[in-house]
Design brief:
Order of helices and strands: HHHHHHHEEHHHHHHH
Structural class: mainly alpha
Helix content: 55-70%
Radius of gyration: 25 Å
Strand content: under 5%
Distance between the termini: 52 Å
Shape: elongated
Protein backbone atom coordinates (compact mmCIF):
# COMPACT_ATOMS: atom_id res chain seq x y z
CA UNK A 1 0.00 0.00 0.00
CA UNK A 2 2.88 2.37 0.73
CA UNK A 3 4.35 1.69 -2.70
CA UNK A 4 0.96 2.21 -4.32
CA UNK A 5 0.65 5.60 -2.60
CA UNK A 6 3.96 6.77 -4.08
CA UNK A 7 2.50 6.73 -7.60
CA UNK A 8 -0.54 9.02 -7.09
CA UNK A 9 1.58 11.33 -4.92
CA UNK A 10 3.98 11.80 -7.82
CA UNK A 11 1.05 12.38 -10.18
CA UNK A 12 -0.56 14.99 -7.92
CA UNK A 13 2.66 16.89 -7.20
CA UNK A 14 5.73 15.75 -9.19
CA UNK A 15 8.87 15.89 -7.07
CA UNK A 16 7.02 16.41 -3.76
CA UNK A 17 7.92 12.93 -2.49
CA UNK A 18 11.55 13.47 -1.50
CA UNK A 19 13.68 11.07 0.56
CA UNK A 20 12.56 12.42 3.93
CA UNK A 21 8.85 12.22 3.07
CA UNK A 22 9.29 8.78 1.51
CA UNK A 23 10.92 7.62 4.75
CA UNK A 24 7.98 8.94 6.79
CA UNK A 25 5.57 7.24 4.41
CA UNK A 26 7.32 3.90 4.87
CA UNK A 27 7.71 4.33 8.64
CA UNK A 28 4.94 1.87 9.72
CA UNK A 29 6.39 -0.86 7.50
CA UNK A 30 9.91 -0.14 8.77
CA UNK A 31 8.74 -0.32 12.39
CA UNK A 32 6.98 -3.63 11.69
CA UNK A 33 10.25 -5.02 10.33
CA UNK A 34 12.38 -3.55 13.10
CA UNK A 35 10.39 -4.85 16.09
CA UNK A 36 11.33 -8.55 15.56
CA UNK A 37 14.97 -7.49 15.23
CA UNK A 38 14.66 -5.95 18.69
CA UNK A 39 13.50 -9.27 20.18
CA UNK A 40 9.72 -8.93 19.87
CA UNK A 41 8.07 -12.15 18.75
CA UNK A 42 4.93 -11.92 16.66
CA UNK A 43 2.33 -14.47 17.65
CA UNK A 44 0.46 -16.18 14.84
CA UNK A 45 -3.00 -14.84 14.03
CA UNK A 46 -5.45 -16.77 11.86
CA UNK A 47 -8.62 -14.71 12.10
CA UNK A 48 -10.24 -11.53 13.36
CA UNK A 49 -11.32 -13.55 16.39
CA UNK A 50 -7.65 -14.13 17.25
CA UNK A 51 -7.04 -10.38 17.04
CA UNK A 52 -9.91 -9.66 19.45
CA UNK A 53 -8.66 -12.33 21.84
CA UNK A 54 -5.07 -11.03 21.93
CA UNK A 55 -5.74 -7.33 21.36
CA UNK A 56 -4.31 -6.44 24.76
CA UNK A 57 -0.95 -7.99 23.82
CA UNK A 58 1.64 -5.45 22.75
CA UNK A 59 2.68 -7.17 19.52
CA UNK A 60 -0.95 -7.45 18.33
CA UNK A 61 -1.82 -3.91 19.38
CA UNK A 62 1.28 -2.56 17.62
CA UNK A 63 0.41 -4.36 14.39
CA UNK A 64 -3.20 -3.15 14.48
CA UNK A 65 -1.97 0.42 15.04
CA UNK A 66 0.37 0.17 12.04
CA UNK A 67 -2.39 -1.25 9.85
CA UNK A 68 -4.72 1.61 10.80
CA UNK A 69 -1.94 4.12 10.20
CA UNK A 70 -1.29 2.69 6.74
CA UNK A 71 -4.99 2.84 5.86
CA UNK A 72 -5.18 6.44 7.03
CA UNK A 73 -2.23 7.30 4.78
CA UNK A 74 -4.54 7.11 1.79
CA UNK A 75 -6.30 10.25 3.00
CA UNK A 76 -3.00 12.12 2.67
CA UNK A 77 -3.65 12.35 -1.06
CA UNK A 78 -6.33 14.95 -0.33
CA UNK A 79 -3.91 17.17 1.58
CA UNK A 80 -0.83 17.05 -0.65
CA UNK A 81 -0.46 20.40 -2.45
CA UNK A 82 -1.83 19.90 -5.97
CA UNK A 83 0.68 21.16 -8.54
CA UNK A 84 -2.03 22.09 -11.04
CA UNK A 85 0.42 23.29 -13.68
CA UNK A 86 2.59 20.13 -13.89
CA UNK A 87 -0.01 17.58 -12.81
CA UNK A 88 -2.64 16.12 -15.11
CA UNK A 89 -4.75 14.83 -12.22
CA UNK A 90 -7.97 16.54 -11.18
CA UNK A 91 -9.98 16.24 -7.96
CA UNK A 92 -12.02 13.35 -9.31
CA UNK A 93 -8.87 11.37 -10.14
CA UNK A 94 -7.44 12.04 -6.66
CA UNK A 95 -10.70 10.82 -5.10
CA UNK A 96 -10.65 7.68 -7.23
CA UNK A 97 -7.02 6.98 -6.35
CA UNK A 98 -7.89 7.30 -2.65
CA UNK A 99 -10.79 4.91 -3.07
CA UNK A 100 -8.80 2.36 -5.08
CA UNK A 101 -5.95 2.15 -2.57
CA UNK A 102 -8.22 2.16 0.46
CA UNK A 103 -10.36 -0.69 -0.91
CA UNK A 104 -7.21 -2.59 -1.88
CA UNK A 105 -5.96 -2.43 1.70
CA UNK A 106 -9.31 -3.44 3.18
CA UNK A 107 -9.61 -6.39 0.80
CA UNK A 108 -6.07 -7.52 1.57
CA UNK A 109 -6.61 -7.51 5.33
CA UNK A 110 -9.98 -9.20 4.84
CA UNK A 111 -8.24 -11.93 2.86
CA UNK A 112 -5.56 -12.38 5.52
CA UNK A 113 -7.84 -12.51 8.56
CA UNK A 114 -10.89 -14.39 7.28
CA UNK A 115 -11.49 -17.84 5.91
CA UNK A 116 -13.97 -16.64 3.29
CA UNK A 117 -12.94 -18.53 0.11
CA UNK A 118 -13.86 -15.73 -2.30
CA UNK A 119 -11.85 -13.04 -0.49
CA UNK A 120 -8.66 -13.95 -2.37
CA UNK A 121 -10.34 -13.80 -5.78
CA UNK A 122 -12.01 -10.48 -5.03
CA UNK A 123 -8.74 -9.01 -3.81
CA UNK A 124 -6.81 -10.15 -6.89
CA UNK A 125 -9.58 -8.90 -9.19
CA UNK A 126 -9.47 -5.47 -7.55
CA UNK A 127 -5.68 -5.32 -7.91
CA UNK A 128 -6.02 -6.16 -11.63
CA UNK A 129 -8.64 -3.43 -11.98
CA UNK A 130 -6.25 -1.00 -10.27
CA UNK A 131 -3.46 -1.90 -12.70
CA UNK A 132 -5.82 -1.38 -15.65
CA UNK A 133 -7.12 1.97 -14.35
CA UNK A 134 -3.71 3.49 -13.66
CA UNK A 135 -2.29 2.12 -16.92
CA UNK A 136 -5.15 3.68 -18.87
CA UNK A 137 -4.55 7.00 -17.14
CA UNK A 138 -0.84 6.91 -18.00
CA UNK A 139 -1.36 5.90 -21.61
CA UNK A 140 -4.33 8.05 -22.61
CA UNK A 141 -4.61 10.98 -20.19
CA UNK A 142 -1.12 11.89 -18.99
CA UNK A 143 0.28 12.17 -22.51
CA UNK A 144 0.96 15.80 -23.42
CA UNK A 145 -2.15 17.07 -25.20
CA UNK A 146 -1.97 19.04 -28.40
CA UNK A 147 -3.42 22.52 -28.66
CA UNK A 148 -4.25 24.72 -31.58
CA UNK A 149 -2.68 28.15 -31.91
CA UNK A 150 -4.30 31.22 -33.42
CA UNK A 151 -3.26 30.13 -36.94
CA UNK A 152 -4.94 26.73 -36.54
CA UNK A 153 -1.66 24.81 -36.31
CA UNK A 154 -1.11 22.27 -33.58
CA UNK A 155 1.62 22.56 -30.99
CA UNK A 156 3.20 19.53 -29.35
CA UNK A 157 2.94 21.24 -25.95
CA UNK A 158 0.44 23.70 -24.50
CA UNK A 159 3.21 25.49 -22.64
CA UNK A 160 5.30 26.87 -25.52
CA UNK A 161 5.33 30.58 -26.23
CA UNK A 162 5.47 31.81 -29.81
CA UNK A 163 8.42 34.13 -30.35
CA UNK A 164 6.48 35.91 -33.10
CA UNK A 165 3.99 37.29 -30.57
CA UNK A 166 4.43 40.71 -28.99
CA UNK A 167 5.33 40.95 -25.32
CA UNK A 168 1.73 41.78 -24.39
CA UNK A 169 0.42 38.81 -26.39
CA UNK A 170 2.91 36.52 -24.65
CA UNK A 171 1.87 37.86 -21.24
CA UNK A 172 -1.80 37.30 -22.14
CA UNK A 173 -0.95 33.75 -23.24
CA UNK A 174 0.69 33.03 -19.89
CA UNK A 175 -1.99 34.66 -17.74
CA UNK A 176 -5.14 33.93 -19.78
CA UNK A 177 -4.49 30.83 -21.91
CA UNK A 178 -2.44 29.05 -19.26
CA UNK A 179 -4.57 30.56 -16.46
CA UNK A 180 -1.46 31.39 -14.46
CA UNK A 181 -3.58 33.51 -12.11
CA UNK A 182 -4.94 30.25 -10.66
CA UNK A 183 -1.46 29.44 -9.37
CA UNK A 184 -0.92 30.98 -5.89
CA UNK A 185 2.81 31.29 -6.67
CA UNK A 186 2.35 33.43 -9.79
CA UNK A 187 4.24 36.71 -9.55
CA UNK A 188 5.98 39.19 -11.81
CA UNK A 189 9.10 37.01 -11.54
CA UNK A 190 7.38 33.84 -12.74
CA UNK A 191 5.68 35.72 -15.59
CA UNK A 192 8.93 37.37 -16.71
CA UNK A 193 10.68 33.99 -16.63
CA UNK A 194 7.93 32.45 -18.77
CA UNK A 195 8.10 35.17 -21.44
CA UNK A 196 11.91 35.38 -21.35
CA UNK A 197 12.38 38.97 -20.25
CA UNK A 198 12.91 40.89 -17.02
CA UNK A 199 10.33 41.93 -14.48
CA UNK A 200 10.61 45.66 -15.29
CA UNK A 201 9.46 45.15 -18.89
CA UNK A 202 6.60 42.89 -17.76
CA UNK A 203 5.41 45.36 -15.12
CA UNK A 204 5.64 48.28 -17.56
CA UNK A 205 3.80 46.37 -20.31
CA UNK A 206 0.93 45.36 -18.02
CA UNK A 207 0.58 48.91 -16.68
CA UNK A 208 0.53 50.38 -20.21
CA UNK A 209 -2.27 48.04 -21.35
CA UNK A 210 -4.36 47.82 -18.17
CA UNK A 211 -3.33 50.69 -15.91
CA UNK A 212 -2.79 48.14 -13.13
CA UNK A 213 0.19 46.73 -11.31
CA UNK A 214 1.05 43.09 -11.89
CA UNK A 215 -0.45 42.00 -8.56
CA UNK A 216 -3.64 44.01 -9.13
CA UNK A 217 -3.99 42.60 -12.63
CA UNK A 218 -3.69 39.02 -11.35
CA UNK A 219 -6.01 39.69 -8.41
CA UNK A 220 -8.58 41.24 -10.74
CA UNK A 221 -8.59 38.02 -12.78
CA UNK A 222 -9.09 36.02 -9.60
CA UNK A 223 -11.88 38.24 -8.30
CA UNK A 224 -13.70 38.16 -11.65
CA UNK A 225 -13.51 34.36 -11.55
CA UNK A 226 -14.84 34.30 -7.97
CA UNK A 227 -17.71 36.60 -8.90
CA UNK A 228 -18.66 34.41 -11.86
CA UNK A 229 -18.57 31.28 -9.69
CA UNK A 230 -20.57 32.91 -6.89
CA UNK A 231 -23.32 33.65 -9.40
CA UNK A 232 -23.52 29.91 -10.13
CA UNK A 233 -23.39 29.09 -6.38
CA UNK A 234 -22.73 25.34 -6.65
CA UNK A 235 -19.41 25.54 -4.78
CA UNK A 236 -18.68 26.69 -1.27
CA UNK A 237 -16.88 29.98 -0.81
CA UNK A 238 -13.77 28.12 0.39
CA UNK A 239 -13.60 25.99 -2.74
CA UNK A 240 -14.02 29.08 -4.91
CA UNK A 241 -11.19 31.12 -3.43
CA UNK A 242 -8.85 28.13 -3.53
CA UNK A 243 -9.77 27.54 -7.18
CA UNK A 244 -9.10 31.22 -7.86
CA UNK A 245 -5.52 30.91 -6.62
CA UNK A 246 -5.79 32.32 -3.09
CA UNK A 247 -4.24 30.57 -0.14
CA UNK A 248 -6.28 32.31 2.56
CA UNK A 249 -9.84 33.47 3.01
CA UNK A 250 -8.68 36.84 4.35
CA UNK A 251 -6.67 37.67 1.21
CA UNK A 252 -9.54 36.63 -1.06
CA UNK A 253 -12.02 38.68 0.99
CA UNK A 254 -9.79 41.77 0.96
CA UNK A 255 -9.23 41.69 -2.79
CA UNK A 256 -12.89 40.97 -3.55
CA UNK A 257 -13.89 44.01 -1.50
CA UNK A 258 -11.23 46.08 -3.27
CA UNK A 259 -12.32 45.27 -6.83
CA UNK A 260 -16.07 44.74 -6.38
CA UNK A 261 -16.75 47.23 -3.62
CA UNK A 262 -18.70 44.65 -1.60
CA UNK A 263 -17.87 41.52 0.34
CA UNK A 264 -18.56 38.07 -1.16
CA UNK A 265 -21.51 37.67 1.21
CA UNK A 266 -22.99 41.02 0.16
CA UNK A 267 -22.36 40.11 -3.47
CA UNK A 268 -24.32 36.85 -3.09
CA UNK A 269 -27.15 38.69 -1.30
CA UNK A 270 -27.33 41.23 -4.12
CA UNK A 271 -27.48 38.45 -6.70
CA UNK A 272 -30.30 36.70 -4.85
CA UNK A 273 -32.30 39.90 -4.49
Amino acid sequence: MVLYLAYPIEVINPGWLNRRRALLLALPALIALALPLCGLRYQHLDSIGDIRTHLADFDVLARVAMVVCTLLYTFLLWFIPHNWRESSADKRWILRANLIIMVMGLLFFTQVFTTWPWSFHIHVSWVCFSFAYFAYFELFERLTPTVTDSQGEKDSSPFILHSSLSLWQQICQVIDDWEAWRNPNTSVETISTAVGTNRIYVARCIREHTGLTVNDYINQKRVDFMAAELKKAPLSYKEIYFAAGYRSRQTAYRNFLKFKGVSPTEFITAQES
